[in-house]
Design brief:
The chain is mostly helical and about 140 residues long. It contains 6 helices and no strands. Helix 3 crosses helix 6 and helix 5 crosses helix 6. The radius of gyration is 18 Å and the shape is globular.
Length: about 140
């Protein structure tokens, strides 16, 4: 019985150590993650002339709400704390971030945060910058 408990403690410690390691990613590791979770098909990035039409625009597309984007792309980390993400609703975790201003939060959402698990657009490469901003607004509104 003691060996089983010791084994469980060792496994828990290893998982904790691995989760801490995930916070300190290199740019190459972040790029690999983005490549693996990129939606199947072709993505148009803002300013990419090959997209046809206004930069980043998709003909007939309707912008998703901040809540919809949060549920589709942000919730996995911001509802569980994965990779050190601040939990939506945790006013203490969001307080200093909100104090930096919305522009700083928008840049973090759109470009990611180097050295953390926060990748560009939370991996939602089909999301427009405006949709990411709406998701940031949603998280901030629910974390004040």
């Amino acid at each position: 019985m003691i060996r089983k408990v010791s084994a469980l403690v060792a496994i828990a410690a290893a998982l904790l150590a691995a989760s801490v390691y995930a916070l300190d990613l290199t740019d190459a590791q972040r790029a690999d993650i983005e490549a693996r979770i990129k939606p199947v098909g072709e993505s148009c990035l803002q300013g990419d002339a090959s997209c046809g039409g206004p930069a980043g625009a998709v003909a007939g597309a309707v912008a998703r709400s901040g809540e919809d984007v949060y549920n589709a792309a942000c919730m996995a980390c911001h509802a569980t704390g994965a990779g050190g993400a601040p939990l939506v609703g945790d006013t203490a975790a969001w307080g200093d971030r909100i104090a930096q201003g919305m522009d700083v939060l928008y840049v973090a959402g759109i470009e990611g945060v180097p050295g953390t698990g926060m990748i560009a657009k939370g991996g939602c490469m089909s999301c427009s910058d405006e949709e990411i901003k709406a998701a940031v607004d949603h998280m901030v509104e629910n974390s004040q």
